[in-house]
Amino acid sequence: IFERDNHRCIVCGKYVDDSHKFHHEPCGQEKSDIISGGVVLCNNCHYARHNTDKLKLIKTKCEEYLRNLYG
Ligand SMILES: [Zn+2]
Ligand SMILES: [Zn+2]
User: Which ligand number lies closest to the CA of residue 31?
Assistant: First the structure.
């Protein structure tokens, strides 16, 4: 997943090294470690995805990104 996304956060483009955990989209009980179920997010965007009112916006970006790649 880090290689596919060139170590860039898919929301803001910031470099993310692979000591970080990628984000599962969807997350929670439906999450899966397949490549089409994960995206690279930087700390800020990852935090925002789970904990702020930007949650829906970032979730939509993750879903669109994966849809563009995998249909
Ligand atoms: Zn970011
Ligand atoms: Zn996450």
Answer: 2
Q: What is the pLDDT of residues 38-52, one digit of tens each?
A: 999 999 999 999 999
- Residue 67 CA, ligand 1 centroid: distance in Å: 19
Q: Which residues contact 22 (CB under 8 A, 6 or more apart)?
A: 1, 2, 38, 39, 40, 41
Residue 46 CB contacts under 8 Å (≥ 6 apart), including other chains:
20, 23
Domains: count for the chain: 1
Q: How far is the CA of 55 from the centre of ligand 1 (A)?
A: 13
Q: Which domain holds residue 48?
A: 1-71
Distance 17 CA to ligand 2 centre (A): 15
